[in-house]
Amino acid sequence: MNPTTAVRYGIIGCGMMGQEHLRNIALLPGASVSCIFEPDDGMAAGSLALAPGARRVGSLAEVVTSPDIDCLLVASPNFRHAEQLNEIAALRPLPVLLEKPACTNLNEVRALAALGRTYPAPIWVAMEYRYMPPVARLSAEVHSAEHTGPVQMLSIREHRFPFLVKVGDWNRFNRYTGGTLVEKCCHFFDLMRHLTRSEPVRVFASAAANHNHLDERYPDGTPDIVDNAYVIVDFASGQRAMLELCMFAEGARYQEEIAVVGPKGKAECFVPGPGRFWPAHLGEPPVPKVVISPRDPKGPWELDVPVDPVALAAGDHNGSTLYQHQRFNAVVRGQGRVEVGLSDGLAAVIMGLAAQESARTGQAIDLLHGDYALNFDSSKH
Description:
Elements: E1 7-12, H1 16-25, E2 31-37, H2 41-50, E3 55-56, H3 60-64, E4 71-74, H4 81-91, E5 96-99, H5 106-118, E6 123-126, H6 133-144, E7 153-159, H7 174-177, H8 180-183, H9 186-196, E8 200-208, E9 228-235, E10 240-246, E11 256-262, E12 265-271, E13 289-294, E14 301-304, H10 309-313, H11 320-332, H12 342-361, E15 365-366
Parallel strand pairs: 1-2, 1-4, 2-3, 4-5, 5-6, 7-10
Antiparallel strand pairs: 7-11, 8-9, 8-15, 9-10, 11-12, 12-13, 13-14
Helix pairs in contact: 1-2, 4-5, 5-12, 9-12
């Protein structure tokens, strides 16, 4: 398509995350939403208020076959992603921005890997955390190696609030989410691959459900998602990474803290949680920052990495949803390239599934052989 042509979106799934996407699409020059498919009446009404020029349709097929769309956003519940992507491929393989996680089980990983090899249009998996300004700044530091040298160790800490309420309460159960280490943490496994530029070979995890949702009851039973975990990942390069997750720690100043260490020094970034959750009596929310700590000469220095207030107000992900859409939008217009492809999304899922299995069994999971082996494509790091 012509690089100057407006981009018209069709939206599949307009819940909490879908509406964040709608707010950010509204900020893109020349972008518009033509139609949405959202089964829940309340969410559909809220979505149409955000995209008043759009119309609501009754099925995925009606979105995909609409003549007035150029691309698709899939932001439906996790367990719908694989089946919907297959339906899109059969009907009309348009460019797709697919919310994370790409899927929720090993069979779907294999099926989508096969689909990805023949799908004729771009598929971009929505790993927003790469595009948080402080994380992007940290990535630039790591990949330049100027202050750290070749990275040897990586740790990611997320101390945050419990899972929010979603339509149908699907996010309370492993069978619908893939498990917390897939649903929530695929972002972090993607960052591990992105920052190390290497492939994982082994995963070991310890996790439990200790505090959140234990008194909740649903038609599907008692929630079984974990609320805290440690995950250690060994990489083919000899690098290693660790994730520390706690989902009952929303009193923290920063939600994410990422540290990378090499022979020359350490680089860190600190990312606050959603501004709407910051207590008003504490004043303005904290500003994201990057800290560089060289070994010689010693002496850390800090860099504030403020986020555009407009982008910050449009969602809960530190402005990253807007920056991601800008890049995806360019790909649809025939400019730029897919930076987070389907193979990247599937790699993050399989790391999360391996972590879930490791936590369940107490055994390290080999990613080079057996059920969890996947031919990772490292060309898109």
